[in-house]
Structures are given as structure tokens and as C-alpha cells.
Amino acid sequence: MDLLLDFVIVGVSIGIVYGLVALGISLIFSGLDIVHFAHGELYMIGSFLGIAVISFTGVPYFWALIGAMIITGVLGVVVERVFYRRLTRGGGGYTVAGMGMIICGFGMSVALQNVAYLLWGAAPHPYPVSFGMPIFLGNIALPKSYLYILICALVLMTVLHTFLTRTKLGLAVRAVAYNKDTSYLMGVNVPVMISLIFGVACAMAAAAGVLIGPINYVQIEMGYLMLLKAFAAAVVGGFGSLPGALLGGILVGLFETLCAGYLIASYKDIYAFLLLIVVLMVRPTGLLGILVKVKA
Amino acid sequence: MNRYPPKKTGNGVRNALLAFTAASLVAGASAASAGVIKVGVSLRMKTETGEKYGQMVADEFEAINAAGGVNGNTIEVKLLNDECKSDIGVANATKYAYQDNVHLFIGSSCSSVSLPIVDVLHKAGVPMLIPHSTNYKITLKGSPWVFRVPISSRFSAAAAAKYTAENIGTKIAYIWASDAASQADAQKFYEYIETYHGELPVYAEQFQEGELDLRAHLLKIKSLKPEALMISAQSQDFARGLVQSYEVGIPPSVKRIGGSAASNRPAPILSGDAIKGVFFHAAFSFADPDPKVQEFVKMTAERYGVANPDHDFSQAWDSVHVARVAFERADLALTDDSLAADRAAIRDALGTVTGYVTLGGGVVDFCADATPECRDGNKTPVLIEYTKGGEDYELRVIGKTTFDADFGLAGMEEEAMKLRESLDN
User: Is the ipTM reported for this complex over the cut 0.90?
Assistant: First the structure.
């Protein structure tokens, strides 16, 4: 029983991080009808920026998280305005511009990785923060970093949910996600809303990067596997659905950890994609697939 | 008084003519014998540390040239980064062998890279001097062109296993990364415990190189309550596993053990305090008070800004000087037509290198036969413990032991035969 609880704690903690990245992917998809393949690199850059904020300002970890989110959010806006705007104007989905956007995302992924290499090198960097020994509840070890992940992720998601559902700006974002042309006619500044969506999505990726930093190390190649897992999470939850992204993340994290724990641990990465295949076979739109039709 | 000037003039002309003739002869002779020994180096230079020991190799060869070269010949070094990736390493080796026509190949750092390169250079007939790779299969393949300066995993893992069994216990859990060196380290470790102490591993599983989350393995290990945990992986995977082992609550009383890559500089830097008390096997420790070691440490600090060089540095340095000894002994023509003969001469000269004392204190003894006994030069692993982690990490030497050349080869005939078959295909 203790072992099962240990696995659940680990699965949920990593799952929430998958969920945060998946949330950004889903947000961009719901807003622009595109799949952003450079999102893993923004997660990586966000993580590096967290270290940079701590190193340069000496602020506590929480403020480094906020700082990294803001800087990465701004970076996301710049990337969207400078590089993606011409393509996103042409539309997403199965249009030529939508396909172009996918290629552009791959290119951006390589470019961002190289920029990170030039700035921080190829060596892994430890996170300059220590949470000390875990809290022991009997035989169960509860690392403080996991609690931090859980609390921060829940706060971020609540804020995002409140923003999208309780503010005028959030309403405008949802309107753009639903139908850009109608939003134009209703007086919504669509380009600004698209930039905002990109910025928020990148900020979420940065949050995931900073939260995972103390558990892992930060290095330029860290985005690739996270992107794959986040895609799996987004698809399991229902692509384009924000609650689905979070649910998918937690399910993927739990499923792969429990399978690794009770089956063969060496195949841990395979289990996430096994779940993806099973969910797609049973429910092709994902678990919260109904929401896909109305998006955010 | 007037006798001497004319005579002196005559002598001067004669001397000038003699000097001119002698100079011409010397110049002619030099032109005939001076040549260029081409060395191709392929190392893991992915990080700043790697770049620095790569640069050190180039600088050491340059210093030999500056001191007059080897038997009047100069050494031309080409340096390539293989990023510890086998496809890049094989491409580098192929380029060196067939395009750059090198006389000697030095590389690689990673066993996963060196293993396929052995096949390439065996076919090309290029001597290969290995500076870092430890997997026992490299020399078990039986290529006559391969020589290894570092300590084979059949010696080093056994030394660590012996120490563990005698001082900690035999109830050991193992996780290892999928790269060749890590696999061999763990395999040789638990084989030793099984053979000499009859204890099977409490847990033994492989994980993918670069795996972010090892906690599923570690939680299972925690529930099995082992006496020791061996994490055999490249430095960053090792550090990740080590830190996560504390996160999941494996108590500090469970002794953590590293493989040879635990000695690499990133391991203590990434692990921080978690690495304190971890021991591993290596070929060298900068904490060794030997004046030769301390002089080397001073050199790396001054030239490369590395005050605590790991055994990748020391073995790279040793490899250059083993190569120098071989170049001095080889009868080289160094013409375009003599390439194959020169390569064979360097191979044969490497086979005569004996009694070379490495910076770590082990002695490199090669011989002519294409067997692991002859080609695993250094048989003296050093057991080292971390006493402090972080950038300014500190070490202490636990002990050194020297093995017989044939140690660990019993029962490996079938594996050797299979490896040789793959080499000839």
C-alpha cells in the first residue's frame, strides 16, 4: 500500500508538469488551430531563465518562477509577432499556412535550441535551489519539491481558469478561439488576442520548466521528450480542451509511473504512448473530446 | 704578422665551402627524413570540460613538436567532437582513416562510440589508442589494431565490487544506463558479487540514457531495502539518479556507488551534497598527493582553469605520451606510399610499450598479441570517495589494487568468439 501511494505521489507530480505543458499546446491549438512543435524548447528556455533570474537577482525560487514566466511569455509574443504572424494570418488546420506553421514550428525548435546552446552551452545545469530532505509520513516519502509543484500548478490553473472565464479579456480570448472572423466583427482586437494566447501558453511552459528544474537538470535537449509526453497528455485529454490537458497530463503521469512500478520500469516511456493509443482507439476525440468542438 | 691574414682568408673560404656543403647535406638529410605523423582525435567534447581536455591533447602534441618533434618528425593533430554519439564517432573515424590518412587514431571517450569504431579501424588498418572507454568488449573483440590506456571494466568494477562486499554488504540494487560503459560496469560488478559471494542482485534494471525520471525504479528499490545502490550511468544520468534516490526516501544508510563515469566533473557539480559519501572506481584522483599528480593539477588549473581534473583529463594526457613513446620507437618512412607500413609500424611500436607509469599510478603494459591481456594496458583501478560535492568538490582515495592481466576473462570464450566473428564480417 505504501508503495502504491509512493507511485501515486510521483505519478501525479510528474503528470501535473506534463499537464502544464499540454495546457500551453492546447491553448495555442484552440486559439490558432495550429500545433506548436517548438513548445518543448520554450519549456527548456523557461527553465534556463529561472536559473538566470535566481543567479542574477538572488530572489527566492517562487519569484524566479514568476520572472521566468513573464520573460518567456514576452519571448512567446515576440516569436509569434515576428516569425509566425504571416503564417497564422493565413489560417491554421489543414490549410497550406497551417502546414507551413508546422514546418515553421520544427524550424523554430531547432533555432531556439541553438540559441540556448550559445547562451548556456550543452552542459546540464543544476537548479540553484534546495528543498532539503522529503517529509516522511510513515514509510512514504513526500518530497517538498512535489508539494511545490502541486501547489504552484493548481494556483496557476486556477488563475488561468479565472482569467478565461471571469474577465473580459478572457472572454475575448475565448471568442477568438471560437471564431476569429466573428470576433473581428464584434470589435475584438484579434492579433493582440493571438499574441496574448501565445504569451500565456509560453508562460505556462516556462512554469513547467522551472517546477521540474529542481527534480531534474536543465539542459538544451530537455524539451524533446517533454513535448512528446505533453502531446500525449493533450491528445488523451482531448486536443484543444484546457481541462482535458490537465487531466490528460495527470493520467499519463500516473499510468506510466504505475506501469513502470508494477511491470517493467525500463519501458516507462512506452507506457505513456500505449495509453495514448488505447484512448484514441476507444475515444478518438480524447477523454474530454466534446469540449474540442467548442475549444477553450 | 702578415702571414696569417691571407692564410686565414684561405681557411675562411674553405670553411665557408665546407659549411655550405655540410649545411646542404644536413638540409638534404632532413628533407629526406623529416615527415609528418598524422594523428586523428575524436573525443566527447560536448561540454566545456570535454573541450578543455581535447585542447589539452592538441597542446601536448604541439609541445612535443616545439621540443623538436619525434625523431625529427612533426606531429599533425586533427581534433573532432563525436558528442558521445556512435554515428558521429564512426563518421569521424572513417574520415580520418580514408580521407585524412592518419597514422594513429586516438578516441573515443565513450564505449558506445569506441565499440563500432574498432570495426571501422580494423578494416582500414589504422592503430587505435583508446583514452577513456572502459567497456571490456572493446579489447575482447581481438582486433590487433586496438590499444587501451584506461582501465577495463573487468578490473575496475571488480575492485569496487570487492570493496563493497568486504565493507558494506552484498545485498545490492543496480540500475544502469543503456550506454556500453555503464552496462559493462554494472554487469561486471554484479557478476563479481555473484561469483565470489553467491548473492544475486536485489534489483537489476536498465534505463534509457537521458531518462528524466528514475523514480519508479528507485521506489521499487526503496521497498526492497538493499544495503547498497549502484547507479551506473554517464555523469548527468548518475547525478539525476542519485538526487532522486534521496527524494524518494531511500535512506542515507544505503551506500550509493557510482560507475567510472561518476568521476567525471559534471557528476559532483550536478549532484551537490547528495554525492557526499559516494564511491566509485577510476584511474586517477586529483587528491593523490603524488608530486607528479599535483604538478599535473597545477598545469590544468593554470592552462585550462580546471583545478580538479578528473580521470578523463589524466587519461587523455597519458594517451598522448603513450603515443609519443610509440612514435619514438616506430621506424617510419612517412611518405604517401608508406602509409600502410607506417600504420603497422606504429601498431607494432605500441605493442612494445611497457612500464609506462600513468598519472594515476597504474602501469600501462601492452604486448603484441591481439588479446585483452595484452591490450588492456592499465590494470590498477583506484577507489575514490567524494567527501564534498558542488563546484569545489573534494575526494579521498580509498585504495588501489592491481589485477592479473587475465582477471575476469574466465568463461568469456564464447562471447569473445562472437565478437571476433562480428569484427571479421
Answer: no
